[in-house]
Amino acid sequence: MGTNEPSRSEEPSPGASDVGDRREVPAAFAGFSPDEAPAGVGFIHGKVRDIFVLDRDLVISASDRISAFDRNLGLIPRKGEILTQLSAFWFGELADICPNHLVSLVGPRAMHVRRCSVIPVEVVVRGYLTGSAWRDYQNGQPVSGIALPAGMRANQQFATPLITPSTKEAVGAHDRPISATEVVESGIVDAARWTQIEQTALALFARGTEICARGGLMLVDTKYEFGLRDGELTLVDEVHTPDSSRFWFADDYAARFAAGEPQRALDKEHLRAWLLERGYQGEGDPPAIPDYLFAEVAERYQFAFETITGIEFSPDETNREAQRQKTLFYVAELHRAQSGGISD
Predict the structure, then answer these.
(1) Does residue 131 contact residue 112 with C-beta atoms inside 8 Å?
(2) Could you give the CA distance from residue 42 to residue 249 in angstroms, rounded to a whole number?
(3) 8-339, what's its fold?
(4) Which phi and psi angles does 115 have, rounded to 5°?
(5) What is the band of 4 on the pLDDT scale with cuts at 50, 70, 90?
(6) Looking at residue 284, what DSSP letter applies?
(7) For residues 109 and 245, is the Cβ–Cβ distance under 8 A?
(8) What is the dihedral angle through the alpha carbons of 297, 301, 303, 309, rounded to the nearest 10 degrees?
């Protein structure tokens, strides 16, 4: 979620009882390279996802790359599988609120989706005063143009969730906060569409909060991305994953807040906090990250999937090369069907 990272003291470890026993994991999947795209198929190499661009659709493959501060930092085994399957779960749970771009799962880490005209704004919804919002508040600054009342505390719940948009910048550039007024005045969308986006985002956040609560988690904040398909607002990208959201454990939130203690988190803030402790905030080369930290993050992603969905994560046992070839074959066949006018 851009630069919404807490300090180390804001992000305690959940502990072994929260994430379970260490699991042996296979080699990670680094993703595709542009020269692997079939002839006539476009290719976009994102921070985490590799996108094959066809005439009417996309095939999006989630690698095991992990990023923080808008920088790729390494590989987390099975992360791409978890992100893909968790987003597929959420697309199903949220479909009555907003249509989404998902057509089908191609494999454990790849999705076939409809092409949309993506609105270049990340719609961040915040339920609590934490991360970059808390730092701005401490410095006496508004949060994405919103002036907050005096006397608030770190990790305090807002009376109603806030929408704090940010720009969606190119890979390698930092997203920046932008106010709702700026979104409209800059012509990104008109006022009526932005109102629709805000209402939709708040409804998605409310549903996500409800579902996370069943597993004892709090959806703290998250980001949504939207596009237009035939003029219809459409949910795209990923939804309510550890890459795009903050989650806290609900059982001791009130006690920790009352005591002024940091909350137990279940997301990639663990990695961000480790980097912040070493003075890294996205500028220059990151410090070498030890393998044990990547293993801990992998455990957290799996635990998040199982806690949110109520489903035991079943990793795909196909070797990485077979996964790669399956996705490439699907892309080639889909391109052939679409370029030849064959209905898919």
Answers:
(1) no
(2) 41
(3) D-amino Acid Aminotransferase; Chain A, domain 1 (3.30.470)
(4) -70, 140
(5) very low
(6) S
(7) no
(8) 170
SS3 state of residue 13: coil
Of the ranges 55-59, 60-64, 88-92, 290-294, which one carries the lowest mean pLDDT score? 290-294
Burial environment of residue 129 by CB neighbours within 10 A (0 to 12, 13 to 18, 19 or more)? buried
Q: How many helices (H) and strands (E) does the chain have?
A: 9, 14
Complete DSSP assignment for 81-127 = HHHHHHHHHHHHHHTTTS-B-EEEE-SSSEEEEE--EE-SEEEEEEE
Q: Give residue limits of the domains in the chain.
A: 8-339
258 token code pair: 């009352």
Angle of CA points 223, 227, 232, to nearest 5°: 125
Which string of DSSP letters, residue by residue, matches 175-222? P-B--HHHHHHTTSS-HHHHHHHHHHHHHHHHHHHHHHHHTTEEEEEE
Length of the chain: 344
